[in-house]
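User: Show me a protein chain along with its predicted structure.
Assistant: Here is one chain, sequence first, then structure tokens.
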Amino acid sequence: MAELLIGACAATGFALLIRFARLRGLTVQWWQWLLTFLGFLYAVFVLEVVVAFMKEGTPKGAAVMGTLLGFFTVVWAVLLGRTAFSTKGSPEGGTVQPDQRGGHV
């Protein structure tokens, strides 16, 4: 059951990321999408490793492996977000204008 939940969350996250890029009008190159997809696959792998350790009855092992492998997942996501999905290269000059309610457009 956990595997289905992990897969559903990953697929939903990827779909939301595509929607976010389209709404913001970001031009994302094919290799950036490939790195994003590989990042999602790696995150699924890390979560599956944690679930496997938990099923084996070793919660400390799950915590250690989740921390070690999860660190690289977070670094990958931050770097990808700062490069591929950044608004700095946009025609508006890299600024995101706030709307009237205080949020971002």
